[in-house]
Amino acid sequence: MQETLNTKAFGKNDIRGIFPSEVNSQLYFYVGKGYVNWAKEQFSKMNGQRKPTDEMLFCVCMDARLHSKELKDSLIQGILSTDANVLDLGLAPTPLGYFSEFAKIDNETLEGKKVNGALIVTASHNPSEYNGLKMTFNKASLSEEQIKEVKDYTLKAFENAKESNYRTIRCGFDKEYDIISNYCDKISDMFDKVGAGIKVVVDSANATGGLVAPQLYRELGCEVIELFSEPDGNFPNHHPNPSDEKTLDSIKKAVVENKADFGIAFDGDSDRIGVISSDGKAISGDKLLLIYSLDLINELKAHGETPTIVSEVKCSQVLYDTINNSGGNAIMYKTGHGYIKSKMKETGALLAGEMSGHVFFKDRYFGYDDAIYAGCRLIEIVAKNKKRSQNFDLKDLILPFNKVYLSNEVRLKCPNEYKKDVLEELKGKISDDFFNSKIKEIVTIDGLRIIFEDGFALIRQSNTEPVFTLRFEANTKEGCENYQEKLCSLTEELVKKHAQTKV
Description:
The chain is α/β, with parallel strands linked by helices. It has helices spanning 25-47, 68-80, 94-99, 107-110, 144-164, 179-191, 213-219, 249-257, 285-301, 317-326, 337-347, 371-388, 416-429, 432-435, 477-502, and strands at residues 15-18, 56-62, 85-91, 114-121, 130-137, 140-141, 174-176, 199-203, 223-227, 262-266, 273-276, 282-283, 308-312, 329-333, 351-353, 359-361, 405-406, 410-413, 439-443, 448-452, 455-461, 467-474.
C-alpha cells in the first residue's frame, strides 16, 4: 500500500484530473468510503442522529471514457465496503445521474430504501486522458466546502486502512438499473408530441448524449439527423466540447445541407448544450439563455408573475437589459455552475445559464443542468413559433443582439500569485478618461465588469488556469476594439511589472 494518497484532483466543483497519475482506482475506492462517511455526518446534522449505513443507497453512473468503467467499479467497491448500497446506472449522461434522485424507481429495486445521492464518473468536456467525479447528496450538487470535507474523509479512510491493514468485505447490495428508460418515459410524457414538424440535427460527439437524445427527440415527433451517436472514449470524430467552435464543423454543415430548423451538440457528459441556427451559425450561451428567458417571461406574464433569471458576468449586457425590459428580473453572478446553482437557490430563480452552455431549469423541472432536457425546451419553443408563422427562424428570437458588437473571449496569461494584485491595481487606474467613455458602474462580484453607456469591459481570473479571461461589448465595432485594446494593454503592462518585481 502506498504511503500517501494523491488528492490533487479535488477541485472547487468536482474531482478532475489525468488518468492514472491524478485519478485512479485507488483514489476512487477511498473516495467511495470517504463520501459515505461524510454522508453519515450530514444525516446526523440534518436529523440529529446518524442514519445506519445499511439503509443508505447511492446511484453511480459513468461517461464513455476508456477508463471510466475501471474507476466506476472501484468507486462502487468503496461504497459497498461501508455497508451502503448501490444502484449501478452504467453508461449514462450526467443529468440522468442527477435525475436518479428524483425518479420514481420501483420499491422492489430499492428494497424499501431511498436514493440519498449520486456519483458520476466523468470529466465532461476535457480531453480523453482526463477523468473525474461529480457528486450530489440530498438532491443537490456538493458545494466547494463540501467537496473539501469529502477530501478530508477520503484521506481519513486511507489512513485508517493503512493503520489497521484490514481486508475489505463487501456488505451492501449492488444492482444494475436502467435509468435511461425511466428518464425517457418521464420526459416524453412531459412534452408529448410537441416536436411534430421539427427537423433537428443531433451531434453527440461519441459521448453519452447519443444513448438518449436522438430517440427521445423522435418520441417527441421530431425528424432527427444523427451525428456520432455511438459512444467511443477515443472521441474519433471531434472533441466533445460545443463551446469550442472547431468542434462544430460537422453539425454546421449537416444543419445547412439537411435544411434543418436547428442543430443540438452535446459535451462529453451531456450537461452542456451547443445550438446551431438554420444558417449553420453557432448561437452563444447568452443568446440561447435569452431565447429561453423570453419564452418563460411570456408564459408567466399572463399570470402576473415576474420570473428571476440568473446568469454570469461574461454574458452580454443585452441579455440582462432585455430580460429586465421584458418583465423579468435578471441577476448577474459569478462564473461557474456551482456558483450559479447556489444563486438560483438563494433567489428562487426559475432559470439560469452560462456562456458555456450549462442551462438550469427550475420551471417545470428539477433545477439542475440537463442539456437533453434543454433541447426538449428548445424544440417546444421552435414548434410553438412555427405554428404562428411557417417562416419563423430561431434567429428571430435573438434580434436584440444585432445592435451590439461583442468580442470573442480573450485570454491573457498571468501567474496565479499575481492575479489579485493586478486586479487591485487595475481598479485604481481605470477611469472615464482612460477609456474615453463614461463609466456607469463597476461590478466586482467576479473580477471587474466595467459598465459604460454603450457596453462593457470585463476582466476576471480563470478558476482553473493561470490566465485572465476578458470580454468586451459596445454599440460599434470601433468602440468594442477601443475597450479591448486599452484594457488588454494595461493588463499586460501590469502583469509584466509584477513579474519583474518578483524576480
